[in-house]
Every structure is written in C-alpha cells, then in structure tokens.
Specification:
four-stranded antiparallel β-sheet; single chain; globular; three-stranded antiparallel β-sheet; alpha+beta
C-alpha cells in the first residue's frame, strides 16, 4: 500500500489504507458493518472516525472529503470504552443482518412455487 491512498474494493465491500500518522501500519479491512463510505464523484468520506486503538500509535482521525481530520488523543480508559461500544454495535449489526427464520421459510416456499 502507498501512503495517502485509500484502497476501495466494491466487490468485497471493504477498504483499507496505511495509517494516516505515518507509522506504516495497515488499517484494513474496514467492514461495512462498522463504517460507511461515501463517494461524491470527486472525494471520499468515511464515517464514523477511525480509531487505531490496537496500533502502537493510537491515532484517531476522520477521512472527510478526501482529507484527514485529526481527533484529540484518547486516554486508555476512553479507548477501552470505545472498543466495548464498537463490539456491541458490531454484534448488533451482524445480528440484524442475519435473515429471520420466517424470511428463510418464505424464500424456500417461493423457490418451490416457481411456475
């Protein structure tokens, strides 16, 4: 990966980049269950912020309109709170993406019913 480049894979619904602080660590993959990517025809934005809590640099920033906007430095306790919140949100989003049992049954019946 090259510094300053956000790599986007539409087929795999992911993106990644080198940490914006310059430490050289890869920040990948960014999953659609956790981040949203917006492309306006000219620049890219990612929401929410990217907190590299597991990297030695502990960098935290947003990518908005193709530019990096830095956040303040978080304490270890704040990072742990964010990790816990992110785990809960990911679990809830992953659970919400699973098909409901009745949806599976309806799909099964629709496959059988085809003329």
């Amino acid at each position: 990966m090259d510094a300053g480049v956000l790599y986007v894979s539409i087929p795999y619904r992911t993106c990644g980049h080198l940490c914006c602080c310059g430490c050289g660590h890869e920040v990948t993959p960014l999953s659609p269950a956790q981040w949203s990517l917006t492309y306006d025809g000219e620049s890219v934005s990612l929401t929410p912020s990217i907190g590299n809590w597991s990297l030695p640099c502990w960098s935290h920033y947003w990518i908005r309109d193709g530019r990096v906007h830095w956040s303040r430095r978080y304490s270890a306790a704040e990072m742990e709170q964010n990790r816990d919140r992110d785990r809960r949100l990911l679990a809830r989003n992953t659970r919400d993406l699973r098909p409901r049992r009745w949806v599976s049954r309806v799909r099964h019946h629709l496959r059988i019913w085809r003329p």
